[in-house]
Amino acid sequence: MKCYNSILTATALLFGVIIYAQGVVPETYINPLDIDYTYMVYNSNKNISYRSGADPAVIEFRGEYYMFVTRSFGYWHSTDLINWEFIRPEQWFFEGSNAPTAFNYKDSLVYFAGDPAGYGSILYTDDPKSGKWTPTASITKNIQDSELFIDDDGKTYLYWGSSNVHPLRVKMLNKDDRFLETGVEKELFNLVEEEHGWERFGENNFHPTLKEGYMEGASMTKHDGKYYLQYAAPGTQFNVYADAAYIGETPLGPFTYMKNNPMSFKPGGFTNGAGHGITMKQTNGQYWHFATMALASNSHWERRLAMFPTYFDEEGLMYTITSYGDYPLFGPDHPTQAGQHSGWMLLSYKGKVTVSSSQMQVKKSTSTYDDYDITEMPLEKNSEGEIISKLLTDESPKSFWVAEANDDEQWVEIEMLSPRNIYAFQLNFHDEESGIYTRTEGLRHRFTVEVSEDGEHWETVVDRSKSYKDAPNAYITLNQPVQGKYVRYNNIEVPGNNLALSEIRIFGKGLGKKPAKVKGFEVSREEDRRDASFTWNSVKGAQGYNIRWGIAPDKLYQSWLIYDENEHFMRNLDRDTEYYFSVESFNENGISERSEIIRVK
Prior knowledge:
Keywords: Glycosidase, Hydrolase
Number of strands: 44
Domain F5/8 type C: 355-509
Largest sheet: 11 strands, antiparallel
Radius of gyration: 23 Å
Protein name: Family 43 glycosylhydrolase
Helix content: under 10%
CATH class of the domain at 53-294: Mainly Beta
Site (Important for catalytic activity, responsible for pKa modulation of the active site Glu and correct orientation of both the proton donor and substrate): 145
Shape: globular
Strand content: 35-45%
CATH superfamily of the domain at 53-294: Glycosyl hydrolase domain, family 43
Structural class: mainly beta
Oligomer: single chain
GO molecular function, one term: hydrolase activity, hydrolyzing O-glycosyl compounds
Distance between the termini: 25 Å
Number of helices: 1
């Protein structure tokens, strides 16, 4: 399959116009996924309360889908890969599931494993909707980040590893005898940071003292007779957390490093990270990669989930499309562009924000020294005496605003830079001293959203005032687009003691022109061949730029989205690989034509 390119982007834009002309809204979704993430017990001794979802294991079983997530006290069920309902199992062992694995064996049984203590009891059921599972006795030990894989011949393999020292390993199990070990165990491969820049530890692949990344999250996909053993690096808290693959002719290898690695990588944009995931096949044959995104605001272990379309090209190289991966994407049932950018652009960036009250506003980012850079913003008011919050439209999920209460007197108003056609909203709530440390039922987000063209006359376009939905990353699409310049969020009730938000994102289409093609694009590969620097001429009216690169002109599978800047530095290249680069500009009106492709030896 040829590389996803600008023709597809143009088609997506055209397709969106045609669909709206017919009065039918295309089904879309957004990353991070809009599900009711579980509150974690990590850091509860410090009174740090936050939700997290990480290390997803997603399977198709009898035409439906099940998603298992680290320490979630259960799992989720879906019929369409967009709408997920939580299932709390009857037995106790799911409370301890860490980096879970699941496998659908011939549509007869679902097998599950995952234990933070490292003891590998494998559970099974023929009815996962019921929440009833049968455990086997513990069959192995010292297992972390396991992956259970049963081949077509019934031979069973357990892959595992989570270390900055040790390699991934595999052992064979006997599926027909309580999954006991057969005695076949093998070391497979380790990180090679001196060759693979993206495997280096740290935010943006840099740390002043630690050089070795963590290798973890093994996952196996069999496609066209080949075995793609995926792994994550360099650390779950970083923007460069990614998945890569080695390819083998047998489940035991030998395995060869895939030359277009990493195969799932999202270092830029609003929400970063695309590692420690699983690749599964939809009933229609479309592959999807579910991955972990690094929110990392309250804690480095505060994470979210993402879903990206995945393909195998004519060389058998596995790749995932993450470009504009935190913008609205076409749903899994789209006939030609499932998971690809819908053409709806970000309308709210740098919009003027006023709020009802402010207990605190904190600007936060991940430091290269394993901690945070934190600035508490001073209270600021406009000329009319209204409280300002610049953090709610800055495209940073780590920064946040906290209101003085959690009631219907709290609100947020955004004035966009110009009138736009609004199609969708994403409300990213923040956990600030919520006091919740486990899976809690009955949580709900109740609010309304209004739109105005003049800031005086308002129309309610979203009414969740009586909703029972728990939606910490609420994604809401409108039945028809609405034109407006102002958007107002009216709070009623959310989990926690205070209303707190990290970002309100508004999507749709501006009424002006998309930006011009980027000129003056230059790439300089550094003396350390894993590094490269980029410069280009600023484009008038551009919000930001999207750098694309890959191992061939038609394999620009990687991308890095940045706002405002016209220069960039990356440390994620493979030392001995030749690359091709291009860049495009974008704004609320659309995406420019790509620049000419530059070859860099």
